[in-house]
Amino acid sequence: MTYIDEINPHREAIDRLNNEIIERIAERQREALAIGAIKKRYGKPVVDKSREQAILDNIKAKASAQGINPEALERVFKEIIRLCVEAEEDL
Q1: pLDDT in tens, 39-57
Q2: Which CATH superfamily is domain 3-89 in?
């Protein structure tokens, strides 16, 4: 077996996973936009710091359970949250 033969299945799996992650982020953004519309209708602010902190705490706990660096995953989710907040602010 060659290097390429051995590595390609893993690269294909990563490509598939990347596509799934993009789909899930798009789905998350759609849900955030729905929430944003409700917040707007009720005159509520887009950002809810207590909810955001609860999400991040949950993410870090789950990261640890999966053997992922919690602080690194927190940074990733902060960016995902920022992406969604920006979309909500554009409503």
Answers
A1: 999 999 999 999 999 999 9
A2: Chorismate mutase (1.20.59.10)
